[in-house]
Amino acid sequence: MNGPDSQAGEYITIREAAALLRCDPKTIRRYIKAGRLTVAQRGQAHNDPLLVELEAVKRLIAEDNAQDGAVRRGDELTQALSIWTRDTLAHGQKAWTGVQAEARKTRYFVLGVVIVAAGIGAWTVHRQGLDSQKNVQAVSRGVSEAKIEAQKAGTMAQEAAGGITAAREEIEGLRGMVGQLQAQVSTLQGQIRDMARTPSPSPAITPEAPRAPSPGPARTPAAEEESGGFLGIF
Question: Is 156 within the bounds of a domain?
Protein backbone atom coordinates (compact mmCIF):
# COMPACT_ATOMS: atom_id res chain seq x y z
CA MET A 1 0.00 0.00 0.00
CA ASN A 2 1.10 3.54 -0.56
CA GLY A 3 1.64 6.07 2.16
CA PRO A 4 -1.04 8.67 2.76
CA ASP A 5 1.04 11.35 1.07
CA SER A 6 0.89 9.48 -2.25
CA GLN A 7 -2.97 9.33 -2.20
CA ALA A 8 -5.39 12.17 -2.77
CA GLY A 9 -7.53 13.29 0.17
CA GLU A 10 -7.26 13.11 3.95
CA TYR A 11 -6.70 9.96 5.99
CA ILE A 12 -7.61 9.06 9.57
CA THR A 13 -6.83 6.14 11.84
CA ILE A 14 -9.08 3.09 12.20
CA ARG A 15 -10.13 4.15 15.71
CA GLU A 16 -11.09 7.61 14.48
CA ALA A 17 -13.14 6.04 11.65
CA ALA A 18 -14.86 3.73 14.16
CA ALA A 19 -15.72 6.75 16.34
CA LEU A 20 -17.25 8.61 13.36
CA LEU A 21 -19.30 5.57 12.28
CA ARG A 22 -20.17 4.65 15.90
CA CYS A 23 -19.04 1.06 15.51
CA ASP A 24 -16.25 -1.27 16.61
CA PRO A 25 -12.80 -1.06 14.97
CA LYS A 26 -13.30 -4.69 13.89
CA THR A 27 -16.23 -3.50 11.77
CA ILE A 28 -13.93 -0.97 10.07
CA ARG A 29 -11.49 -3.80 9.24
CA ARG A 30 -14.35 -5.82 7.74
CA TYR A 31 -15.30 -2.80 5.61
CA ILE A 32 -11.67 -2.61 4.44
CA LYS A 33 -11.65 -6.30 3.47
CA ALA A 34 -14.96 -5.85 1.62
CA GLY A 35 -13.47 -2.94 -0.33
CA ARG A 36 -15.88 -0.35 1.05
CA LEU A 37 -13.07 1.80 2.50
CA THR A 38 -9.91 3.07 0.84
CA VAL A 39 -6.83 2.57 3.01
CA ALA A 40 -3.16 3.49 2.99
CA GLN A 41 -0.23 2.48 5.18
CA ARG A 42 1.70 4.95 7.23
CA GLY A 43 5.35 4.46 6.36
CA GLN A 44 7.00 1.64 4.43
CA ALA A 45 7.29 -1.03 7.17
CA HIS A 46 4.80 -3.91 7.08
CA ASN A 47 3.76 -3.34 10.68
CA ASP A 48 3.01 0.37 10.24
CA PRO A 49 -0.63 1.25 11.14
CA LEU A 50 -3.31 1.49 8.42
CA LEU A 51 -5.05 4.76 7.63
CA VAL A 52 -8.58 5.12 6.23
CA GLU A 53 -9.64 7.70 3.66
CA LEU A 54 -11.90 10.29 5.29
CA GLU A 55 -14.04 10.77 2.18
CA ALA A 56 -14.92 7.04 2.09
CA VAL A 57 -15.96 7.22 5.76
CA LYS A 58 -18.24 10.17 4.96
CA ARG A 59 -19.87 8.16 2.17
CA LEU A 60 -20.59 5.30 4.60
CA ILE A 61 -22.12 7.77 7.08
CA ALA A 62 -24.42 9.09 4.32
CA GLU A 63 -25.47 5.51 3.41
CA ASP A 64 -26.23 4.71 7.08
CA ASN A 65 -28.34 7.88 7.38
CA ALA A 66 -30.34 6.88 4.27
CA GLN A 67 -30.95 3.38 5.69
CA ASP A 68 -32.05 4.86 9.04
CA GLY A 69 -34.54 7.05 7.17
CA ALA A 70 -36.01 3.98 5.44
CA VAL A 71 -36.36 2.21 8.81
CA ARG A 72 -38.11 5.26 10.30
CA ARG A 73 -40.55 5.38 7.40
CA GLY A 74 -41.27 1.69 7.90
CA ASP A 75 -41.95 2.30 11.61
CA GLU A 76 -44.31 5.17 10.77
CA LEU A 77 -46.19 2.93 8.32
CA THR A 78 -46.42 0.21 10.97
CA GLN A 79 -47.81 2.67 13.52
CA ALA A 80 -50.41 3.98 11.04
CA LEU A 81 -51.55 0.44 10.21
CA SER A 82 -51.77 -0.41 13.90
CA ILE A 83 -54.01 2.61 14.52
CA TRP A 84 -56.21 1.66 11.55
CA THR A 85 -56.43 -1.93 12.79
CA ARG A 86 -57.41 -0.82 16.28
CA ASP A 87 -60.10 1.54 14.95
CA THR A 88 -61.46 -1.16 12.62
CA LEU A 89 -61.74 -3.71 15.42
CA ALA A 90 -63.39 -1.12 17.67
CA HIS A 91 -65.95 -0.38 14.95
CA GLY A 92 -66.61 -4.09 14.46
CA GLN A 93 -67.06 -4.61 18.20
CA LYS A 94 -69.48 -1.70 18.35
CA ALA A 95 -71.51 -3.12 15.45
CA TRP A 96 -71.58 -6.57 17.12
CA THR A 97 -72.83 -5.01 20.36
CA GLY A 98 -75.62 -3.28 18.43
CA VAL A 99 -76.64 -6.54 16.77
CA GLN A 100 -76.81 -8.29 20.13
CA ALA A 101 -78.98 -5.50 21.53
CA GLU A 102 -81.37 -5.80 18.57
CA ALA A 103 -81.58 -9.56 19.07
CA ARG A 104 -82.52 -9.09 22.73
CA LYS A 105 -85.22 -6.59 21.74
CA THR A 106 -86.64 -9.07 19.21
CA ARG A 107 -86.85 -11.85 21.80
CA TYR A 108 -88.63 -9.55 24.24
CA PHE A 109 -91.03 -8.47 21.51
CA VAL A 110 -91.93 -12.07 20.64
CA LEU A 111 -92.58 -12.89 24.28
CA GLY A 112 -94.74 -9.80 24.69
CA VAL A 113 -96.79 -10.66 21.59
CA VAL A 114 -97.51 -14.16 22.91
CA ILE A 115 -98.55 -12.86 26.31
CA VAL A 116 -100.82 -10.19 24.80
CA ALA A 117 -102.45 -12.70 22.45
CA ALA A 118 -103.19 -15.09 25.33
CA GLY A 119 -104.57 -12.23 27.38
CA ILE A 120 -106.80 -11.09 24.53
CA GLY A 121 -108.22 -14.61 24.16
CA ALA A 122 -108.93 -14.92 27.89
CA TRP A 123 -110.46 -11.47 28.07
CA THR A 124 -112.70 -12.26 25.06
CA VAL A 125 -114.04 -15.43 26.68
CA HIS A 126 -114.71 -13.69 29.95
CA ARG A 127 -116.32 -10.66 28.36
CA GLN A 128 -118.76 -12.32 26.04
CA GLY A 129 -119.91 -15.03 28.47
CA LEU A 130 -120.39 -17.59 25.69
CA ASP A 131 -121.33 -21.15 26.27
CA SER A 132 -118.83 -23.96 26.19
CA GLN A 133 -118.84 -24.34 22.41
CA LYS A 134 -118.56 -20.65 21.85
CA ASN A 135 -115.92 -20.47 24.51
CA VAL A 136 -113.95 -23.18 22.76
CA GLN A 137 -114.35 -21.36 19.46
CA ALA A 138 -113.27 -18.07 21.02
CA VAL A 139 -110.29 -19.73 22.62
CA SER A 140 -109.44 -21.41 19.29
CA ARG A 141 -109.62 -18.06 17.53
CA GLY A 142 -107.43 -16.55 20.21
CA VAL A 143 -104.94 -19.36 19.85
CA SER A 144 -104.99 -19.01 16.05
CA GLU A 145 -104.36 -15.30 16.33
CA ALA A 146 -101.61 -16.01 18.81
CA LYS A 147 -100.06 -18.51 16.35
CA ILE A 148 -100.19 -15.95 13.54
CA GLU A 149 -98.53 -13.35 15.72
CA ALA A 150 -95.98 -15.91 16.86
CA GLN A 151 -95.21 -16.76 13.21
CA LYS A 152 -94.73 -13.09 12.43
CA ALA A 153 -92.49 -12.76 15.45
CA GLY A 154 -90.56 -15.88 14.37
CA THR A 155 -90.03 -14.36 10.92
CA MET A 156 -88.71 -11.20 12.54
CA ALA A 157 -86.42 -13.31 14.74
CA GLN A 158 -85.10 -15.17 11.66
CA GLU A 159 -84.37 -11.84 9.96
CA ALA A 160 -82.57 -10.66 13.07
CA ALA A 161 -80.55 -13.92 13.15
CA GLY A 162 -79.65 -13.39 9.48
CA GLY A 163 -78.45 -9.88 10.37
CA ILE A 164 -76.36 -11.31 13.20
CA THR A 165 -74.80 -13.90 10.85
CA ALA A 166 -73.98 -11.22 8.26
CA ALA A 167 -72.41 -9.05 10.94
CA ARG A 168 -70.30 -11.99 12.15
CA GLU A 169 -69.11 -12.69 8.59
CA GLU A 170 -68.22 -9.03 8.12
CA ILE A 171 -66.24 -9.02 11.37
CA GLU A 172 -64.40 -12.21 10.35
CA GLY A 173 -63.59 -10.62 6.98
CA LEU A 174 -62.23 -7.54 8.76
CA ARG A 175 -60.10 -9.74 11.00
CA GLY A 176 -58.75 -11.58 7.95
CA MET A 177 -57.86 -8.23 6.29
CA VAL A 178 -56.17 -7.08 9.48
CA GLY A 179 -54.14 -10.32 9.62
CA GLN A 180 -53.03 -9.89 5.99
CA LEU A 181 -52.04 -6.28 6.63
CA GLN A 182 -50.06 -7.27 9.72
CA ALA A 183 -48.27 -10.01 7.72
CA GLN A 184 -47.43 -7.49 4.97
CA VAL A 185 -46.12 -5.03 7.58
CA SER A 186 -43.95 -7.76 9.13
CA THR A 187 -42.57 -8.68 5.68
CA LEU A 188 -41.87 -4.99 4.93
CA GLN A 189 -40.09 -4.53 8.27
CA GLY A 190 -37.96 -7.64 7.61
CA GLN A 191 -37.00 -6.34 4.16
CA ILE A 192 -36.09 -2.92 5.58
CA ARG A 193 -33.98 -4.48 8.36
CA ASP A 194 -32.27 -6.75 5.80
CA MET A 195 -31.49 -3.68 3.66
CA ALA A 196 -30.11 -1.92 6.74
CA ARG A 197 -27.92 -4.90 7.71
CA THR A 198 -26.67 -5.80 4.19
CA PRO A 199 -23.77 -3.55 3.17
CA SER A 200 -23.96 -2.27 -0.42
CA PRO A 201 -21.00 -3.61 -2.45
CA SER A 202 -18.64 -1.02 -3.79
CA PRO A 203 -15.67 -1.56 -6.08
CA ALA A 204 -12.41 -2.15 -4.24
CA ILE A 205 -9.72 0.39 -4.94
CA THR A 206 -6.37 -1.23 -5.68
CA PRO A 207 -3.61 1.21 -4.80
CA GLU A 208 -0.93 1.54 -7.42
CA ALA A 209 2.71 0.84 -6.62
CA PRO A 210 4.92 3.93 -6.45
CA ARG A 211 6.75 4.68 -9.66
CA ALA A 212 10.20 6.13 -9.88
CA PRO A 213 10.17 9.59 -11.46
CA SER A 214 11.48 9.47 -15.04
CA PRO A 215 13.53 12.32 -16.38
CA GLY A 216 11.56 14.43 -18.78
CA PRO A 217 12.23 17.38 -21.02
CA ALA A 218 13.13 20.64 -19.40
CA ARG A 219 10.10 22.82 -18.70
CA THR A 220 9.78 26.45 -19.43
CA PRO A 221 8.40 28.82 -16.71
CA ALA A 222 5.12 29.03 -18.63
CA ALA A 223 4.78 25.23 -18.64
CA GLU A 224 5.52 25.10 -14.89
CA GLU A 225 2.79 27.66 -14.23
CA GLU A 226 0.22 25.75 -16.32
CA SER A 227 1.11 22.45 -14.58
CA GLY A 228 0.84 24.03 -11.14
CA GLY A 229 -2.55 25.54 -11.99
CA PHE A 230 -3.90 22.16 -13.18
CA LEU A 231 -2.67 20.28 -10.09
CA GLY A 232 -4.02 23.03 -7.83
CA ILE A 233 -7.51 21.97 -8.76
CA PHE A 234 -6.95 18.66 -6.95
Answer: yes
